[in-house]
Write a structure and sequence with these properties.
With 138 residues, the protein is mainly alpha-helical. The protein is elongated.
Length: 138
């Protein structure tokens, strides 16, 4: 596993992280902004200017997920798009969607399943996209 860590293509992780961040921006601001606010129970509030945590936090979290996926790609010896997409689907559904639903069923979320239905596809698409970028740049 240590050897796989040393073989991770870090520039690819950065490119995939930037792409994932851009996907999230389009997803949550342009495509599903109103539905997302409704799912969070804040649709009646005036839009706020995003703070630094709102911008840096998702980028760092996605970068950690993508770095972990890059490590798995190397450890599993995945070098083709088909297997990369399969890993992206496994990570997307098995980890990211499951965690999103787990977070959403918190009693503080007024519409947990709407929240999950908005977030889950973005995480799966982001995971698939990241795996493609990681393999393309290796």
């Amino acid at each position: 596993m240590i050897e796989a860590f040393s073989q991770v293509n870090w520039p690819a992780v950065i490119v995939a992280s930037i792409a994932h961040f851009a996907l999230g921006g389009v997803w949550f601001m342009a495509l599903f902004g109103k539905q997302y606010a409704l799912a969070l129970g804040i649709a009646d509030r005036a839009p706020q200017k995003p703070g630094l945590l709102f911008i840096v936090g998702p980028f760092v979290c996605s970068a950690l997920n993508i770095a972990t996926t890059a490590l798995l790609l190397r450890a599993l010896g995945i070098a083709n798009y088909g297997d990369a997409l399969l890993l992206g689907l496994v990570v997307g559904v098995g980890y990211l969607v499951a965690m999103t639903v787990n977070i959403a069923i918190n009693p503080l979320f007024p519409r947990p399943f709407q929240y999950a239905l908005i977030n889950a596809p973005m995480f799966v698409i982001g995971s698939l996209m990241s795996c493609v970028i990681l393999v393309a740049m290796s």
